[in-house]
Amino acid sequence: MKIVVAPQEFKGSLTAVQAAQAMADGLRRVLPDAALELVPMADGGPGTVEAVVTAAENGRRMTAAAHDALGRPLEAAWGVIDGDTAVIEMAAASGLTLLTEDERDPCVASTYGTGEIIRAALDAGCRRIIVGIGGSSTNDAGAGMAQALGARLLDDAGQDLPPGGAALARLGRIDASGLDPRLRQCRVLAATDVFNPLCGPQGASLLYGPQKGATPEVARELDAALRHYAQVVERDLGVSVLDLAGAGAAGGLGAGLAAFLNAELVLGAQLVAEAVGLRRRLEGADLALTGEGRLDAQTSFGKAPLEVARLARDCGLPVIAIAGSLTEDCRPALGEAFDAFVAITPRTMSVGEAMAQAAELVTDAAEGVARLLLVGQRLGRR
């Protein structure tokens, strides 16, 4: 029996690599002779670099000197696959988890560090760049990233704008003449799991600003600043980002990547699946096992488990998902994608306890799946 084990991260408790290993441990308790293919997955958010580099035959882990969203120095991890393809997570420099709750402030948080990682990839000779744009702490529409790569964002007095989304309200013009010329030789792919517009009720500021520290009033001000930014971008760069699907991802970084780097916005889970060769690995298998920390209605849009299920169905395979928790709304939304759901958390266990014991619980759940597989085999022989 061949089983492809392809989970996403269990956020806050297990990386995708750790989750895949925990599932494999459980399966081997019951099916020691099964051929297990471990393919950690991601959707463009945290864990993308680890998943893609781990799966690649020639993947290399790299680090870059960069700055976090508040300008503090750090070492940001990124990777190289296929010789000249960089895999970058904006969250490695500009991520929400790098800030304490008290530090979150989208008015001043900057994507400058993300631009520094891109520059490091250029220095390393990479000419195809995948940027995962999930998990952001920023709302500057990639302005900081563009500045790190040589663009100038100027106010009406010709002064460079300070970091952050609030300053974009004072944007007078954009001078892209100093943008790193190597970018013209690059193909840039922005991997996202959301395709929100830049502005409006479903845009970067009003929908996601509050989780980054914005009050309702501040979120409205940031939304107006991004709308003004989009107008200047269209005037000075000739790129329309206001209504571009995905422009609002990662605090508008989708817009910035499209405007300054001519990036193509793509569904992150599909991009990662292609990068790790998931379809090829599913061919000839008997079962696909996937999962994530929480299965809910959002899983049906853009998340890695659904992409695993879609490709598995194409290959004629049954699919089982293991989740940290299941919500009631996930059943109608995902019932056609998965043959079965398994929750790892006993009803009597708190979320904190479950996260602390996540590896053990995932292993136990996978063992349960394996035992049910044996039951099915026996019933099939009757």
Structure report:
The chain has two domains: 2-41 and 277-381, Glycerate kinase, domain 1 (Rossmann fold, 3-Layer(aba) Sandwich); 48-269, Glycerate kinase, domain 2 (Alpha-Beta Complex). Helices cover 38% and strands 19% of the residues. The chain contains 14 helices and 13 strands. A hairpin with a 5-residue loop joins strand 3 (60-67) and strand 4 (73-81).
Strand share of the residues?
15-25%
**How many separate structural domains?**
2
Name the CATH superfamily assignment of the largest domain.
Answer: Glycerate kinase, domain 2
Order of helices and strands: EHEHEEEHHEHEEEHHHEHHEHEHEHH
Percent helix, as a range, is 25-40%
Cα(first) to Cα(last) distance is: 19 Å
Order of strands in the sheet with most strands: 3-4-5-6-9-10
In DSSP terms (H or I, runs of 4 or more residues), the helix count works out at 14
Global geometry: elongated
Unreliable runs: none
Count of DSSP E strands?
Answer: 13
CATH topology of the largest domain: Glycerate kinase, domain 2
Radius of gyration: 22 Å
Judged by helices, strands and strand pairing, the structural class is alpha/beta
CATH class of the largest domain: Alpha Beta
Under the CATH scheme, the architecture of the largest domain is Alpha-Beta Complex
